[in-house]
Structures are given as C-alpha cells and as structure tokens.
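Extended Data, panel c. Modelled sequence:
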Amino acid sequence: MADPTNSTPGGKQQQRVSISTVAHAKMILHAVCKATQQVHGILIGRFAETDAGASAAPTLFIEDALPVCHEAPTKPIVDTSLRLAETYCDSLSEEKSDDSNQCRVVGWYTANERLGGDENVRPGQAALRIAGSIGARLLSEAADKPLPAHAEPVLILIGNGALAELLGAENGCDASALPNAVNVFGRDQRKHWLRRFPADCVISNDSIKEKKSFQSSIEAVRSAVSSSTDLVKVPLYDFVDHMEGGTGATGERDWLINSNVKKMVQDSMFKSH
C-alpha cells in the first residue's frame, strides 16, 4: 500500500524547489545561533512556470528566509511577522508587471531543538499548522495574485543531525550529507505538509553549480561560528530579537534584511570561485 505522505495529491507532477544560497545560509545559521531552541521563519520567493507549459508543475524559487522566532511560535508573533513579510514582498514586487511572478510568502522553515539530536525526523505540530495556514492564504489571494497551476508552498525542516555533521567536518563540507540537512516537504494526500520532496527536486538557484553553491552557504556558516568558543561572530536576528531590542536597536536588528549575513555569504561565494 502506498504511503500517502510520499504521494503528490491527485498524482500531480512534482514541483521543483530552487533555494538561493542566502536563504540556505540564513536558515542554517538561525538553527546554529539558537542551537538549544526550536527556530521558525518565513520563506519568500516566486513561482515560475516551466518551459513545459501551464499544465506542468512550476518551479518555486525561494529567494530569502526571514527568521521569525527561537521559541514556540505564538499566534500574535506568526500573524504579525507574516503581515510584515507580505508588505516587504509587495515592496520588492513594485517594479514587476507579471502578477503570476510576484514575490510572496511561499513557505515556512523550522528546526527542532538541540542541534545534533535525533529529533529531526519530522516537523513539529506548530510548523505543520503554520504551513497549512500559508497554503490557505495563498489560495485565498489567488484572485489578486494568480498562481501557476499546481503551485504549492513548502515546509523546510533543518535536519539537526546532518547539519551538526556538516559543520563539524574536519575536511570541509561533505556534499552527500546536504540533502539531509535541508528537508523540503509539500502537502500530502491527507493535506498535511509531510510529503518529502525527492533530493533531485531541490536545487540551488544561484549561477554556480548546485552542490558548490550549497557548500558555500555551509562554509560561510562554519566561518561565522568560532569552534573554540561556540560564539557566533556574525549574528543573525529574528523577529523576536528585533522586538526585544526596542526602538533604539530596530535598525541594527533588522530581521527582514540581516545585511551582515548576506555580506558573509557573498564573501564566501567570492572566495569559492
């Protein structure tokens, strides 16, 4: 009997997911910065139809990750951060004329507690509920922001065990462990976000070769963490950090941009060429 969590609803074609190096690095750095806590964040990007036509599953381009919290996500935190993220997406889309390719909230990411633990088998219930809510929001907005056929948001789970292995490797990043460090889930036949995407459907949307691009983000995070003191040299701020910093620190703790992290990734990619 087929596992309903591994089948696409209605047997539709498998959507491809393309993740930018910056989004990849932000997700794993968020997990590393808050290694003893669960973390959550928003994925933003665009859906694009393939050359196969409108009847084929599109490609989802995840362009950025917006860190939200390092605790159990409450409804006020989730609702407020999603509203701010949607406004941010609108500002990025102002110059775009093709409504079907507008920047929008396209998913959620999470990492469970205890970096290196065994609790990375599946997303937690809070993340599953939020992914379902984002799916419903996308459908409700389809009249104003049309979606390509078969487009769906995703839920990404950072695999703590694989991530700890990658960051602790003495001889650099082992590309074979990359698929287990970033697990992508879509909606299954039971309408839960537990259908794991095949590894060959998750790629990098940067110009360099996929594995090298993902390796760049891993190496960037490794360089940002001092192995001798476990201190993060390049801080990443989430929405909760932003709120706790008060009005005097809102610019420094800009959870939407995290410009220091973006620069760190760009520097790492430049060195890899």
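Residues 16 and 59 are 5 Å apart (CA to CA). This feature is highlighted in the accompanying rendering.
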